[in-house]
C-alpha cells in the first residue's frame, strides 16, 4: 500500500507541474496569435486624425 501511495503522490506532482507548463504555453501562444489585436488596444494614441483648423503661431 505504501508503494501505491507514493506512486499516486508522484503522479499528482508531475501532473500539476505538467499542467503549469501547458498553461504557460497556452497563454503565451494566445498572446502571440492575437498580438495585433492586443497591440491595437494600447497603440491608439499613435494615430493622428487630420483637422481642418488653422494652426495659431502667435500664442494667443
From TrEMBL:
InterPro entries: PepSY-ass_TM. PROSITE patterns: PROKAR_LIPOPROTEIN. Pfam families: PepSY_TM. This is Putative iron-regulated membrane protein. It comes from Algibacter lectus.
